[in-house]
């Protein structure tokens, strides 16, 4: 899913507020897109919040430029598949699925949909919310593990948006942690400079309070989709120098997951990551308005919320309607929460993604 930002001259004292809340925190004409159907718009600002000022944090702020989320958008495939639909083709039923996962429906790409078309649609909505022209975008990040081009689909999003100045666009592959990694990456670009046209804000307005990112390659055995190892079609030569050439066409295996181990992993590391990010921000769980996790499984969401002592009414979840949408799940849920009026300007959100790699990370952000 995806996003965008705005334009500003850093030397000016104020920022022209031409956006509305959205999923993104970037200071330049930054554009953030997520593989699938959701987009987030980012624009610049600096650390600080209406409810939480830097003076309340134990951690010193060393940023001269900040970033904040100013626009969001989403788009989903038209084909909806219910649990009852699945029960017609495999041995299962609605109760079995919903009790164990919390999922009742999901959206599936059909022949009429495409990843890049959905991403572009979501991105345009984010730009509209932020009131930013596509030509003011400096960077497009597409977070997906299922690009339509092995070399990356982000440039196609830039093309679909009609950006005339050829901004850089590239993919970030980190499975279900992709959005959080993309969000932090965009913030780093904004804070580090490198782009001439940026939407800057006073450091007191920064919307990214802290983040915490990790990976553990040892856990790949629990969740992976590796390339199949095929035998060679032909064996050339007699001295063994050409054995294995030419190889068969490679193909990816189906996703392989050890559900119990992934559940244990998520319930253990996600609360730790959020608590560490809160500590770095000088905040506590009582300071957050919303808990927004990767929508993998309702049991995981509930377990993490319980560990963090966050009441259910402050947990954002749309898993029942869409299932696990991987890198798109956090921005998709956020977009719905923003557009429905649940998440308001100034609200503090603890977001966390986790998945294949294994990778996981959290970010404490303020909306708008």
From TrEMBL:
Tell me its family: Belongs to the thiolase-like superfamily. FabH family.
Tell me the ranges covered by the Beta-ketoacyl-[acyl-carrier-protein] synthase III C-terminal domain, including all copies. 278-367
Q: Where are the transmembrane segments?
A: none
GO BP terms, alphabetized:
fatty acid biosynthetic process
Which CDD domains does the protein's record reference?
A: KAS_III
- Answer yes or no on keyword Repressor: no
Which pathway is this protein assigned to? Lipid metabolism; fatty acid biosynthesis
- The superkingdom of the source organism is Eukaryota
Q: Which GO terms describe its molecular function?
A: transferase activity
Cited InterPro entries: ACP_syn_III_C (IPR013747), ACP_syn_III_N (IPR013751), Thiolase-like (IPR016039)
Keywords assigned by UniProt, alphabetized: Fatty acid biosynthesis, Fatty acid metabolism, Lipid biosynthesis, Lipid metabolism, Transferase
The Beta-ketoacyl-[acyl-carrier-protein] synthase III N-terminal domain covers which part of the protein? 170-204
Q: Which Pfam families match?
A: ACP_syn_III (PF08545), ACP_syn_III_C (PF08541)
Q: What is this protein called?
A: 3-oxoacyl-[acyl-carrier-protein] synthase III
* Keyword Transferase recorded: yes
């Amino acid at each position: 899913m995806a996003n965008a930002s705005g334009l500003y001259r850093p030397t000016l004292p104020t920022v022209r507020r031409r956006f509305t809340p959205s999923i993104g925190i970037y200071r330049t004409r930054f554009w953030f897109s997520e593989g699938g159907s959701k987009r987030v718009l980012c624009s610049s600002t600096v650390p600080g919040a209406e409810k939480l000022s830097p003076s309340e944090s134990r951690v010193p702020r060393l940023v001269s430029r900040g970033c904040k989320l100013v626009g969001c958008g989403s788009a989903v495939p038209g084909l909806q598949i219910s649990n009852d639909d699945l029960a017609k083709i495999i041995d299962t039923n609605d109760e079995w699925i919903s009790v164990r996962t919390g999922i009742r429906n999901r959206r599936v790409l059909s022949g009429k949909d495409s990843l890049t078309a959905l991403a572009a649609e979501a991105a345009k909505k984010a730009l509209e919310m932020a009131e930013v022209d596509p030509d003011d975008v400096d960077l497009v990040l597409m977070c997906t593990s299922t690009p339509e081009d092995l070399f990356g689909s982000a440039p196609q999003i830039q093309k679909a948006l009609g950006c005339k100045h050829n901004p850089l666009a590239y993919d970030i592959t980190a499975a279900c942690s992709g959005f959080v990694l993309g969000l932090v990456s965009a913030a780093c670009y904004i804070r580090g400079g490198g782009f001439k046209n940026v939407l800057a804000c006073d450091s007191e307005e920064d919307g990214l309070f802290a983040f915490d990112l990790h990976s553990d390659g040892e856990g790949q055995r629990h969740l992976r989709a590796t390339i199949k190892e095929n035998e060679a079609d032909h064996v050339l030569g007699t001295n063994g120098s050409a054995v294995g050439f030419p190889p068969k066409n490679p193909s990816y295996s189906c996703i392989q997951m050890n559900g119990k181990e992934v559940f244990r992993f998520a319930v253990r590391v996600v609360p730790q990551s959020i608590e560490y990010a809160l500590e770095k921000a000088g905040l506590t769980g009582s300071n957050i308005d919303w808990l927004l996790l990767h929508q993998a499984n309702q049991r995981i969401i509930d377990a993490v919320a319980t560990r963090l002592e966050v009441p259910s009414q402050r947990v954002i979840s749309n898993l029942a309607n869409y299932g696990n949408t991987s890198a798109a799940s956090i921005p998709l849920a956020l977009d719905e929460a923003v557009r429905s009026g649940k998440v308001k300007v100034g609200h503090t959100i603890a977001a966390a993604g986790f998945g294949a790699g294994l990778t996981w990370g959290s970010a404490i952000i303020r909306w708008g």
